[in-house]
Q: What sequence folds into this?
């Protein structure tokens, strides 16, 4: 991790003038951003604004072409770097970054317990007993201990998403990324997933969250980032962003989403 000069929490994620292209389309434009250890940063913006691309770069699901991205003290390889053997650095970073997607991506033929224990056994080389003991503890943490022997198809969407969070936590990540984790859920199931994320915040987990849940963003974020057209337009504390945004594009976006 990179120590901040003012002695505050070390920096866990640092973008510096990052640009990302898909062919001729620029998905990220000169992005500079730092996220401190233990900080919760919520990213908002319209569809196609670059939010998901931003956090997918943090675990290398997308790679940037220019600029610098440092995650937990390690430099993320660029697209060009990966063409010349940068995979080892990428794998090292991914071991410390958990990610939860819109879809749950659980293995339907494995039990909930097996879904959580699999990666620690395969990647961390933990014994089955050790991995399953930790998995039971994580099921306790997300309120699903009584569901461990069921299959994903037997659970509600909210329960499956909580299992997906537990599965990511099983790898002991230093950073958790959430890409609209409640967007695929029925409204009555959203709260149970957000409750788990609130607990992670209380525990001091570093998180970057893409969400359309503005009330949740206001509640849990240390900082809110508004993105538009691949660029960071405005960054501030929730009260500033939601109550007194300084940029006209931010004001226009919030005027549309907050009245619904």
A:
């Amino acid at each position: 991790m990179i120590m901040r000069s003012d002695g505050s929490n070390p920096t866990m994620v640092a973008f510096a003038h990052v640009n990302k292209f898909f062919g001729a389309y620029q998905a990220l434009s000169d992005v500079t951003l730092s996220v401190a250890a233990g900080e919760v940063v919520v990213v908002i913006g319209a569809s196609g604004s670059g939010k998901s691309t931003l956090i997918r770069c943090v675990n290398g699901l997308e790679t940037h072409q220019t600029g610098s991205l440092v995650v937990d003290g390690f430099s993320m390889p660029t697209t060009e770097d990966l063409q010349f053997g940068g995979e080892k650095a990428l794998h090292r970073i991914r071991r410390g970054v958990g990610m939860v997607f819109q879809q749950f991506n659980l293995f339907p033929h494995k039990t909930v317990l097996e879904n959580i224990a699999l990666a620690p056994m395969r990647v961390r080389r933990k014994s089955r007993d050790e991995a399953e003991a930790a998995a039971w503890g994580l099921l306790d943490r997300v309120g699903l201990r009584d569901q461990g022997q069921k299959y994903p198809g037997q659970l509600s969407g909210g329960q499956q998403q909580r299992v997906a969070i537990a599965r990511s936590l099983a790898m002991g990540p230093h950073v958790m990324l959430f890409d609209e984790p409640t967007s695929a859920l029925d409204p009555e199931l959203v709260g149970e997933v957000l409750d788990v994320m609130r607990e992670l915040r209380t525990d001091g987990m570093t998180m970057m969250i893409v969400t359309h849940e503005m009330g949740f963003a206001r509640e849990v974020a240390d900082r809110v980032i508004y993105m538009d057209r691949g660029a960071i337009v405005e960054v501030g504390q929730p009260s500033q962003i939601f109550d007194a945004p300084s940029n006209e594009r931010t004001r226009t976006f919030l005027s549309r989403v907050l009245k619904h």
